[in-house]
Structure formats: structure tokens, C-alpha cells
Amino acid sequence: MSAPAPPLDEALHRALREHQAGRLEAADRLYREILDRVPDHADALHLLGCLYLQRGQAAAGGALIERAVAQAPDQPAYHNNLGLAYKDTGRPADAAAAFRQAVTLAPDYAQALVNLGAALTLCGDHHSAIEAMERAVALSPASAEAQNELGHALAEAGRRHEAVAAFRRALELDPNLAPAHNNMGNLLRLLQRPAEAVAAYQAALKIDGSVAHYHANLGGAYFESGQLEAAWDAYQQALARARALPEALNGLGVLLHKRGDYEQAVARYREALKADPRHVDALNNLGNSLKMIGRFEEAVGHYREALSIKPAHADAQFNLGMALYREEDLEPAAADLEAALAAQPEHENARFFLGTIRNQQGRVEESLDHFAALARLPRPTDHLVDSWRYAWGHRGANTRFLVQRFEVLEQGFRLARPEGLVLEFGVLFGASLRFIAGLTDQEVHGFDSFSGLPEAWGNKPAGFYTTGGALPEVAPNARLHAGYFEDTLAPFAAQHPGPVRFMNVDCDLYSSTRTIFEVFGPRIGPGTVIVFDEYLCNPDWREDEFRAFQEAVVRHGWTYEYLAFNLQGKQASVRITG
Ligand SMILES: C[S@@+](CC[C@H](N)C(=O)[O-])C[C@H]1O[C@@H](n2cnc3c(N)ncnc32)[C@H](O)[C@@H]1O
Q1: Does residue 247 form part of some domain?
Q2: With contact defined as beta carbons under 8 Å apart, do 365 and 355 qualify?
Q3: Ligand 1 center to residue 446 CA distance, Å?
Q4: 527/567 same-domain check
Q5: Pair 534, 493 in one domain
Q6: Which of 408, 444, 504, 506 best tests ligand 1's pocket when mutated (most atoms within 8 Å of CB)?
Q7: Which of 70, 139, 137, 154 is nearest to 106 (CA)?
Q8: What is the pLDDT of residue 1?
Q9: What is the overall mean pLDDT for the chain?
Q10: Domain count, the chain
């Protein structure tokens, strides 16, 4: 004979005691016993639903709480917890409606107001979100969480300085609130203060090192503050905790792109997109890496996809504009650049290139207006306008203004003298050498240390751009010559007589470019085409490849014409004329 069942109240108390003590299995069993006796017992349905939420089974929890709400529609807590279930199952609008119902029933329910604000932020209704948060803060001025959510809503609404103040207050109230440190980091990055963002994420991680996206965010802040190795490590830490975290995969892609490893960057972006097909930054970045390896049409498709998801994505709009750039009809590109500026008036590249396009179109006043706006941006941009003025001022009758690096290489090769050596200086992972080798059946020669730059260049340390000593796969007509130019060029030249037909100079440094001209200067003559990959647009462009070439021009008494400028790719292409 089994013992008689306790009265319902007592049974519920017993279940609740187990639940509050964290003994979820026992509580689950006891709630179910009550529901076996009274299937519509509202409290048991609600509490069992909450237990499911705690276990991460939000859909099942939500279904139970919906049944509780049907039985007792006037319980604010039921609506609040139903909102949490909806939020956890990716239904922010339903969540907001549930939280709103909780607040309608209990206007002083501060936690429900916080939840309502967070749900409204997710829905993009920033104005209502801030209103809810301000009410929550007024009701519980000592709640760090309320301040944190208010900050988040303010940040999302673009009220960044007020958001900083809210996060500060949250952290004064509770210095151990890791999400507030993380939110502060996100905001500092938006305010272009990456070093402070690093400190904020580090503080979040000190409190809770298990959160993968804090690590990924730290990676982003390291990247923006130029600490690329630390960024790499932070992304790896993130992936160790969440194997397919799109932010971390996207971040690794950006690093690989910066290292010149475009194929690997493409692979990482594709992984990020597998995890989140609507990751607009990964789509945009994928476009950029594909463009660098000449997969132009695919790149355009990805920019368009990014824009279909987020129409005001200024970078994607800019990239699409540059992809649509045609010298013979500049208006489509200009329209996209205008759109990028409408989305983000301080977009440096959109402003600069729109200035150059208006100049090309003869709309000089507009061009000057854009350059003046550029000069008002916080970051120094003089080198950009200086580069444009140089390029425009040194154009000849046949100089083309291009924006695709392979187009510059193709045009240069086509217009070079018909025979002679074909050389590339700076091969790295082989992207441009593979393209050049595809233009001809003759042997092409690529020179690289494959252990990176021999000295620091700009903010890149010595050793940057390394393949770790590995030689890239190249076409059968390409020969690789590994080692520093100082050691490899002279012996090669001794064994390979004759003039230079075409060379791609992509070694960035003044000293390396000078070495090239010391060895091959006497082989360069009328019809030789030289494409430089970092000729202008860098802050110190007049001190790098440009300077080494100009010195060689004086030394050898060459005359030359510019065949093309590609200011986006920083390239210039010259043909020696005498
Ligand atoms: C920007 S990367 C080349 C990128 C490559 N052309 C591409 O399409 O991806 C520059 C390369 O120049 C090489 N380099 C620069 N100075 C060098 C030198 N003095 N000797 C050997 N390699 C050098 C670096 O090792 C690096 O791989």
C-alpha cells in the first residue's frame, strides 16, 4: 500500500524546496506528480517551465508556461518567464509582448522592465527600449544590471557617450558584472579607443574566462590596436570554447587576409558563414579576399548579399561601388559611394574615392568638398589626397585609373616589350605570381625570403608576411627563388642574361626595392613595364617603393610613362620609354 499523497500545497512546497536547492531531478519528479493529479495546476506548470528554462530547454519550458498563463493570465511573473522562454528561442517580438504584459499587470516590476528593454533592443526599437530601461533604473537605482541594459540600449541607439556613463554606473554598482565590462569594450571599439577596449575585455575575462565571445571581442580589440599576434591567440581561445563561433572565425579571416593568405581567409569566412549565413561582416570580408585572388564576380555577389541583409552596411556598399567602378561610366560607382557615405558620413575610403571620381568627372568643386570633409576626420588623411594629386598630376594621355590589382597586372603585361625576363619580387603565398604565370607560357621568376619582411615597415614588424618558410604552390612555368634579395638576385642575374620585360615589385620596403634596381637597373630599358604594389596611399609612400624608383630613374636617366594607377590597391604601373 502506498502512502497517501500529501495535500497539493504541501506537495508544491516540497517541490519548490528541491528546486531552490538546485536538485532539479527531484523537483521535476515532484512537479510532475502534482500535474498527474491536477493537469492544469498553474503554479506547477509555471515552475516546471522555469526548471526547463534553467536546463536550457527553452522551447519545452515556454510550452509549459503558456499553459500556466492560460490558467492564470493575471500573474505577472508567468508573463515575465514566458518572455524569457521566447527570448531564448529567438522570438524577441513575442518576448517583448510577454514582458510588456508583465509590466502592465505590475507597473513596478523592475526586472520585467529590464527584460522588456533588452527584448526591444533586439527588435531594434531603441526608443522604447531606452524608455523601459529608464523606468527600470528609476525603480531600482541600485541595480547594476538595469544600468548595464540601459547602456546597451543607449549604445545601440547611437547615444554612445551616455552609454559609456551608464556602463560606468553599472560597474560602480557591481565591479564584477562581466557583461558590463564586455559592453563597455564594444562601445570603446566603436569610439575607436581599442587599447581601452582591450582592458575592458580583459576585466570581463578575469571575472568569467569561459565566455567565448568575450575572447573573440578581445581579439577584435587587439587587432584594432595593431597587436596581431595577441589577436590571433584571443580568437583561438574563443574557438577553444565555441568551435564555430562566427565572430572568431571572421576575425581569423581578417588576420589571414592581412597576412596575405587570401585562400585561408576565404576558408575561415566560409566556416563563419556556415555557422551564421547572415553574418554580414563575414560576407563582406569574403568578398574582399575573393577579390584579391581575382574571383571578382563571386566577390560582387557576396557584397550584394551583405547589403540585402543589412542595407546600411557602409563597407559593403563602398566595396560594391568600387567593384562596379568603370572608367568609362563612373556614375554607378559614385552612387554606391554616396550611399556608403549616407550610411556612415565619416567613411574615410568612401569620402576619398568619391572625391577622386568627382575629380575624374571634372566636377572639381564637389571633389574639393569631399577632400575638405576628409581633412576634417580625426585620423590624418593628407597622404591620400597627396597621392591622388600626384597620380592625377602625373597622368599621361593613356594613363588609366583602375581599381582591380589583377587588371593593372594584365594591362602592364600586355603593354610590355614582347620578350625578356618576367619577374616578381615579393611572392608570399603566391596570389599575384599565379596570376602573372597565367598570362604567359614563358618562365616567370618569383623572389621571396618566405620568412617575411627583413625589417619593420610601417606598423608591420620585421618577419611580417611570412609563409613560415613554406613555398606556395605555383604554375609549372613559375620558378621560385627563396632567400633575401640581397643573396638571391645577383646570382640569378648572372645566370639569366637579357633585358627585363615585366616586373611586379611587391616587397613594400625602400631597401628591398633599391636592391632590385641595383641588380636589374642595367637590364631595364624601353618597353620594360614595372608594376609597383605599394607605390602610393600609405602615410609614408614617398619614402618606400616610390623613392627607390625615383632614385633609380635619376641614376639611370630613364624616361617613363604611367600606364595605370590603382589607388585602392596602392599600385602604379610604369613603362620605361627611354
Ligand atoms: C606584400 S608581400 C607580397 C604579396 C604577394 N605579391 C601577393 O600577391 O600576395 C611582400 C613580400 O615581400 C617579401 N620581401 C620583402 N623584402 C624582401 C627581401 N629583401 N628579400 C626577400 N623577400 C622580401 C616578404 O617576405 C613578403 O613575402
Answers
A1: no
A2: no
A3: 10
A4: yes
A5: yes
A6: 506
A7: 139
A8: 45
A9: 95
A10: 3
Confidence class for position 436, pLDDT limits 50, 70, 90:
very high
Cα(260) to centroid(ligand 1), Å: 10
Burial of 469 (0-12, 13-18, 19+ CB in 10 A): exposed
Which of 186, 207, 239 represents a domain boundary (last residue)? 239
- Whether the full predicted model's pTM is greater than 0.90, yes or no, is no
Residue 257 lies in a domain: no
Looking at residues 150-178, what average pLDDT do you find? 94
Q: Tell me whether residue 546 is exposed, middle or buried, using C-beta atoms within 10 angstroms of its C-beta: 0 to 12, 13 to 18, 19 or more.
A: buried
Digit-coded pLDDT (tens) for 1-48 = 456 778 888 999 999 999 999 999 999 999 999 999 999 999 999 999
Residues 118 and 180 occupy one common structural domain: yes
Residues 408 and 488 in one domain: yes
Q: Whose CA is nearest to atom 13 of ligand 1?
A: 426
Question: Does a structural domain hold residue 3?
Answer: no
Closest ligand 1 atom to residue 260 Cα is 9
Residues 382, 405, single domain; the answer is no
Average pLDDT over residues 133-155: 93
Instruction: Looking at the CA of residue 262, tell me the nearest atom of ligand 1.
Output: 9
Contact residues for 7 (Cβ-Cβ < 8 A; gap 6+): none
| Domain limit, last residue, from 323, 358, 393 | 393
Domain range for 326 is 263-393
Shared-domain flag, residues 512 and 540: yes
Q: How is residue 464 written as a grid cell? A: 611580417
The per-residue pLDDT for 79 is 98
Is there a single domain that holds both residue 212 and residue 322? no
Residue 288 lies in a domain: yes
The arithmetic mean of pLDDT across residues 423-439, rounded, is: 96
**Ligand 1 site: residues with CB under 6 angstroms?**
260, 426-429, 431-432, 448-449, 452-454, 465, 484-485, 506-509, 512
- In this structure, are residues 578 and 526 in contact, taking their beta carbons and an 8 Å threshold? yes
Going by CA atoms, what residue is nearest to atom 11 of ligand 1? 426
For the beta carbon of residue 379, count every other beta carbon within 10 angstroms.
8
Q: Give, in order, the Cα–Cα distances in Å from 513 to each of 200, 205, 424, 445, 563.
A: 42, 45, 11, 16, 20
> The CATH number of the domain where 353 resides is what?
1.25.40.10
Expressed in angstroms and rounded, the spacing between residue 527 Cα and the centre of ligand 1 is 25
